[in-house]
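Hey, quick one: can you model this chain's 3D structure?
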Amino acid sequence: MVSGETFNILPADAENAQLVARVWDPESGGPRVCRVVGDELVDITAQVPTVSELAEQPHRVEELGRGSGPKWSIEEVMKGSGSGDPGVPHFLAPIDLQVTKACGVTFVGSLIERVIEEKGGGDIAKADALRKELSDVLGGSLKGVSPGSDSAKKAKEILIEQGLWSAYLEVGIGPDPEVFTKAPVLASVGWGSLIGIPGFSQWNNPEPELVLLINSLGHAVGAMLGNDVNLRDVEGRSSLLLGKAKDNNAQSALGPFVRFFDSQFTLDTVAEEEIHLRVEGEDGFLMTGTNNVAEISRPLEELIGATWGVHHQYPDGFALYTGTLFAPTQDRGEPGSGFTHHSGDRVIISSAHMGTLENTTAPTESLAPWNFGIRDLMRYLSRHS
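Sure thing. Here's the predicted structure for all 385 residues.
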């Protein structure tokens, strides 16, 4: 029987899902790979020490954990997550040796917000006026324009004439998508962890996204939810500041589980997924939104191909953020002030097939430093796998 608390984190069809998590084990002092069985987490590290290895043979997921006793209940691990206490079990990001990559500006429908960031130089006060100007020039939006098409080329000509062309428009409606490194190996955080907002950012937002798990052969073998936390003012000053805007401690949240693909859950399934966002502020602020993956402007296969191929390989696989349709403009304060995070915001990202990822914002400078790296993982596995 699945408890109410546990039910909130699991997919709606959890009984049919092949779910894998990573849990910090205080007894051994390191991460354990676990399979979800009912409302329990079965430790399968002795059979497969990393999620990266499991991704190479995804058909093994169903057989793993049989005959083993449960290590923890999901509810127990949920209670320990977010405490920052290494003495209690807690969720980790459900990937390990994979690099965390991301594709940006993949939804033409929300492209205008990226251009606003750039044209406004990251100044939130200029956003409203720029939004109206761009809307007037485009006759509404660029929604429906296929990247690399003749209509995209025509839109590019018009925008250049108006002096409104930008790097974001190039990757949004041009032939090649944007691909960047979101986080180093082992740097992403999991369900319940604090997510960091650096003190040098005054305009920032969550980005609820579908994240694909790709193995070393470039095959998509599973999916999870992700929060591609974004510093709009930093990236708006210059697209060359993308690393500073996207890659800081605890600025990539993944989970709660990897759901491996099978006959019932495929790449086609997630291509139609609706991902819901809810932000609850300690000040009483509430914001909701939806990222409808079906409205993505490029096929998921194209994003994978732009990341992996003869031009770039990933021997340990990678996780790929696929972008978001959602760009928040809801005022949090004075009219025209737009949205930005406050410390203590509860960020809840959910979908029917992948469950619920929940995190809380905090100043990056107040977070415990990231200090468990690849060397630590290798030493740990040599002793405990």
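One thing worth noting: The chain has twelve helices and 18 strands.
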